[in-house]
Every structure is written in C-alpha cells, then in structure tokens.
Task: structure prediction
Amino acid sequence: MSQGASAPALLACLDGVVSTVQSRLGLITGCLAALVLGVSGCSLPGPAQPPVATLQPSASGIPAFQRHASLARKEAPALRFVDWHPLQREMLVLARSQGLMQLHRLTAPGAAPEPLTQGADPVADALWEPLQARYLVFTRDQGGDEAYRLYRLEAGQQAAPGQVLTPAGVRVKEFAFLPQGRGLVFLQEQLDRKGGDEGAATRQARSWLMWMDPQNPAGARVLGEVTGGRFGDLRITPEGAILLLRSQGQRSQLLSFDLSGAPAGRSGARNRGRMTATRRTPSATAMWSGDGRPCKASSAT
Result:
C-alpha cells in the first residue's frame, strides 16, 4: 500500500483481514468440537444420563449390552397393618426384614419402619397391651410348622426375639386382651401330627379357651375345653364377656364365658348356664351394642 493511501482504503483493508481471521477461527473451532464430541458438527450437551454398567461379552461371542442404574431401583416395602399404639399416634405393622415378615413401628407418614422383632421365623399377628402399652404380644411358628406360639416383647425393645409364653406342641389360634387390664384370653388347639389313616379311629380334635397374664405366663389356666370339636371366632364384649363358637360335628354353639370358666349363657339369654345350638354354617358372627349387650347373632348359609 502506498504512503498516500487514504484512510477509507486503509479501513477497508483492515476489515478484510479481520473477516478472514474470524472465518479461519470459526472453522478451527468447529473442527475441534467435532473431534471432542465425535459428531459432524457442534451441538449443545443434552441432559445428564444415568451411569451405565457394561457387562463383558461371554466366551460364546454374545455381544455386550448396557444396563442403566436407574432400572435397578429397590421396590417399596410391603407393609401390613397390625395394631394402633394405644397412647401414641403410631402404627404397629408387619414388614419384611431379611426376607421374613417382622414387627415394625411406623411413627409418621413416610417414615422408615423401625424393626421391633427379629428371628429365623416370621411373625403372624400381634397386639399392644391396651392400657399403658408396657408390652406387646405376638405369634410365630417354628420352621413353617404352623404351631403358633405366643411371645411377649417389652416396650422399648428393638430387633429382639421376644419371650415365649405358651408351650410347644399346641397351636395358638386366636388371642385378645380383656378390658380394664384383666389379662389375655386365647384359643389353643391340639396338633395332629399323624398323617393319612394312622390312628384315624381314635383321633379327636381338642381345643381350649385359655386365660393368661402375659407378665406371669406360669399362671395361665383353662376356662373351657372341647373334645371332638373346636373353638373359634373369639370375641370380647365391651364389658369383658368372652364370646366364641363351639363347633362339634354338624352343630355350632355360640357361647359366652366369664373368667370363672363357666359358660355365662347363650347370646341374649339372662339365665346362667343355658346355651343355644344352631345349624353349622361356613361362618357365624355376633355383634354387640354400645352397652355390651348382645344385639345380633347371624350366620351365612
């Protein structure tokens, strides 16, 4: 360029140089982005992807595949409601622990269940002591033999096996607390360990209505017994009367007991010692009014 070149000509020359440099820089930047991203052009990064675990190909030549970590989410725990705490706003639930259903306490919505029991066998059912929640009672069998026994667990214990309350060789079928701290009643029945026709001619079912103070299991006593039949459908009235069905042969009797062990009469009857026989049906239930009087006994045909 000559020394006499005008200012406009000089500015035009500089503009050409700048345009050439910018063009070359854009080309270089695009190539670097293509090399880094492994694509033919530039693109904005997408959303973060979950980490993947690549499985190595086997010797048979099967190609490897990828498994997203998001697919290995844990399933939500399955909970079964058992009982309400009598003094606090919390639930007693059954949840799996090491593959077995164990008792847990659930203190708030969405809270993690806190384990209360542990052991090699699952828990079947449980109840809190209804007055002060000093302890709870629960049932479990041994090795799946269905010979359910009663256990006591003190309040405040966690991940404990519990103290056994009933003997081996018999099965606890149902249990319920009496009102006003008058103890626990439960149905217990004899186990039949003989299969097939062995001893069938002399085999008889036996069932007992039992009372116990769970804090003094040695004082347990029999309130009622049936041979050649079974007790079932244990209920407690608001006043503390014990109601159950005695099934024997083709007949069922709806009985009411008190703690003396004597039948307190049939449902709706005032005279002591009388019972009513009804036709045996698949199910029978009794309902009670608010003042503890029996108001209805029904059976499904």
